[in-house]
């Protein structure tokens, strides 16, 4: 199965870009980043003349506690709460989406701004605001934009760790340059391993809320209007390059940790546990077939023949899931492993190298 990055949107649809990785076929399809089209002539990338920066005359958010009251429309409540914090990200190369996560700071995808010379945002009420790219992490596909003094409302932040399959999700972004598009669905899976452009693997939220080119960097929210993910990519059937019900989002817990490191200037090296495991097996967990000398796994006491059942209380059923959960963390992070050794169940603490 081929994994490709997004291209341009036009009258002919969504063009596929460079293939960046292959893996043994587990299912038919391809994963594409939902980046999007060249910016239209209406945008002024140099001056932001479509509107003044700093306007505070924007829609006020709705109390998240009211979103679950009897008789309300959850998706509509989410749109009212979160919509003003979701922007369209426009560059000289293309267009995506973004979300205000702190005062004057926005999250988007790395692939939305990669290689761009000029970046601006268009707010929910049409204002064009120049922004600075503070930094990005290709591995987790997260970038941080700065718009100081813009007065943009900050999105309520939730927890991706609390998500369960079947929960309502709402996606907000600018698919095909259709700003403030709202779609809804459910969490299809959590901690789904998805390949990155550098060959690593990240643990992602899978959702069937429709995501299309241009949604990249936009919001994935729970029913309370809290940000739980940053939409990033879709898997296709190999024939259509638009949504077929399988989309992926960077968990907000990961996105915020990446953003904090970017803002603070901290390193972004991925974590390494130091084990090899079998891809397919009939037992529970992931059987360890090799432990690297001097690794965090060896120091923690992990042994060949052990079976890794959980990492930080998250169950793992394949080596790809374990890899995604480890590589979404950073060098120096501590993780707790639940390990089966013979008839005993052990808890080991490992520091990722």
Keywords:
353 residues, mainly beta, Thrombin, subunit H, Pdz3 Domain, 2 domains, seven-stranded antiparallel β-sheet, six-stranded antiparallel beta barrel, 22 strands, globular, disordered N terminus
Descriptive account of the structure:
The structure is a single chain. Helices cover 11% and strands 39% of the residues. With 353 residues, the chain is mostly beta strands. The protein has two domains: 1-268, Beta Barrel (Thrombin, subunit H); 275-351, Roll (Pdz3 Domain), CATH 2.30.42. The protein has a seven-stranded antiparallel sheet with strand order 8-7-4-5-6-10-9. Strands 11-12-13-16-15-14 form a six-stranded antiparallel beta barrel. 48% of the residues are buried.
Low-confidence stretches: 1-30, 37-62, 64-68
Give the domain tally: 2
Helix/strand structural class: mainly beta
Number of E strands: 22
The number of distinct helices, counting runs of at least 4 residues, comes to 5
Shape: globular
Q: What's the CATH class of the largest domain, please?
A: Mainly Beta
CATH topology annotation of the largest domain: Thrombin, subunit H
- Label the CATH architecture of the largest domain: Beta Barrel
Radius of gyration, CA atoms, in whole angstroms: 21 Å
Strand order across the largest sheet: 8-7-4-5-6-10-9
Reported for the largest beta sheet, the result is: 7 strands, antiparallel
